[in-house]
Amino acid sequence: MLRRRPAPPRWRLIGQSIRGASHERSGAPNQDAYALYPPSGEGATVACAVADGHGGTKYFRSEIGARIAVDVALQMVEGILQTLPPDGLKSQHTKNQIAETLASSIVGGWQAAVEEHRKENLATQAEASIWAKETNQDLERRMAPQIAYGSTLLVTAVVRDEILFAQLGDGDILLVSDTGEAIPVFTAEADMLGGETTSLVSPDAIKRARVGFWNRPEVLPAMIMLSTDGYSNSFPDAPSFHQVASDIWEMTIEGNWDKVQATLPEWLTETTRKGSGDDITVALIARGDV
């Protein structure tokens, strides 16, 4: 169970992304991305975003789509953070406003940025052939330029003792308590439609995005872990995956935050080689008092 304790004044955050073992073998790029705010990696207010480009033939620009996704998401979140009232996220009115506008702001911003990139980087003949071959349904044909950039997105922002979460598509956001228990913020079922994950390129992306808040400052999580599905898919079941977050938390409470940051690339590389073979990206937010 989460234990009661005073709210911390500051938070720390780090991130890491590694190319999947299968991508190394095939020559595919790392199609994940992450972004952190602020660049210093600590503060009373912090935020991070993690994205997973779909890969596959018709998503041949998805690594660009993922990078655009995290940049746009943090741009939108920063705008929200800079205009919050004095009580931060505590007001229900503020939460309602964010819940109503965040998804549309991110999806709309992503679509605009993708279109700008497409116009500045017109499709080659080979890419145009892929669009024509792979996007053979009316809706997909109209959305073909965006489909090439398809990506999922995870976002978390912490304002002192209040937390904002947003998710579109697969991947995981886990809360780790003061006792090391890992708890998922959202369940996976809502992220799948017809066997495929929903994402920024889904026609109903705004409606399918999920936004939530943690507003129990007396029982704040000790750590939050965001990760693309290449991480969880490397384990046989959810408890085994959740244990990873608990193990990382143990290192942070032992004062080894720097060691966690230094060894993340090695851990993730070993995990993709022994597990899913997919790209793996992780962002960690930890309370400053752990």
What does this structure look like?
With 290 residues, the chain is of the alpha+beta class. It has helices spanning 21-26, 62-82, 92-120, 125-134, 138-142, 144-147, 205-208, 229-232, 238-253, 257-274, and strands at 11-18, 32-37, 42-43, 45-52, 153-159, 162-168, 172-176, 182-184, 192-193, 196-197, 210-214, 223-227, 280-287. The strands form 3 sheets. Strands 3-1-13-12-7-8 form a 6-stranded antiparallel β-sheet. It is globular, with a radius of gyration of 19 Å.
Helix content range: 40-55%
| Secondary-structure element series | EHEEEHHHHHEEEEEEHEEHHHE
**Strand portion, in percent?**
15-25%
The dominant shape is: globular
Q: Could you tell me how far the N terminus lies from the C terminus, measured between alpha carbons in angstroms?
A: 16 Å
Mean pLDDT: 87
The total count of strands amounts to 13
Q: Give the C-alpha Rg.
A: 19 Å
Q: What distinguishing features does this structure have?
A:
290 residues; alpha+beta; five-stranded antiparallel β-sheet; single chain; 40% helix
Quick summary of this structure?
The protein is α+β, with helices and mostly antiparallel strands and 290 residues long. Helices cover 40% and strands 23% of the residues.
Give the topology, please.
Elements: E1 11-18, H1 21-26, E2 32-37, E3 42-43, E4 45-52, H2 62-82, H3 92-120, H4 125-134, H5 138-142, H6 144-147, E5 153-159, E6 162-168, E7 172-176, E8 182-184, E9 192-193, E10 196-197, H7 205-208, E11 210-214, E12 223-227, H8 229-232, H9 238-253, H10 257-274, E13 280-287
Antiparallel strand pairs: 1-3, 1-13, 2-4, 4-5, 5-6, 6-11, 7-8, 7-12, 9-10, 12-13
Helix pairs in contact: 2-3
